Amino acid sequence: MSLSERLQSYMRHAARERYEAIPVKPFTVFLHAFDPLIYFNYAIPDGSVTGDVREPLRRLRAEFQERKRVPRFEYVAELAPNLEAALLANGFRLEAEARVMVCTRESFTPTPMPEGLSFSVLTSESSREEIRVYCETARRGFSQDESYEASEEEVSKTLGELKEGRSVLGRVEGVPAVVGTFTAPHGGIAELGGVATLERFRKRGLGSAVTSRVAREAFEGSVDVLFLSTVTEEAGRIYERVGFRFLTRMLFLVDAAHPEGATAPVSG
Question: Most buried by CB count within 10 Å: which residue of 130, 162, 254, 265?
Fold first, then answer.
């Protein structure tokens, strides 16, 4: 099994752990239990997809629409090379093309800590208040104009996800500023994600610093390969400083017929 195949297998496993999995052959739909945010609900092909997909896509759209979700795909491009054209021909649009980057214990390059920055490493034993601050900082880092307060349900869900993974909350002079996380490892692989910096703290090296700390936590545990996906060259350069290297591409496609899908911004 190639590393790209291992990563796609990991993505399916991780999605099954976090979301409800609904088979719609030759796809599997993954839906968040309560959050309709477009990036928390998506489908992954079960393998290389060939032939007419119109009927499977009709059933897939019905599953998303029944839960008031936007039909969407995330997958490693090289493992389903014919799928993009089929989706485009059936009313989807390319939302983003991301670079998948990997870091190993050998390539990991720790970065210096910016002045005034301190980290809290969050686990399933962390306080609910600390988890709440993490959740709200993460959401505001990605959606700066959104007024958001984490629900008790989200706090509980996040605590559950930290049984094996870890999240890092960074503060500048005591003020929450940056977050990052890695998911529960499976087969020696984990995903680095959720790296977000509040707008007022950007351009200070906090993204590299939190990525470095998350990677350190991962490699001190059972992780051999840490991966991420990024759609911007600027972010890619940040991750390269920590030892990440390009491996393959991921595609994100969304249903253009859906009102949200027609205007959804690029993810990542």
Answer: 254
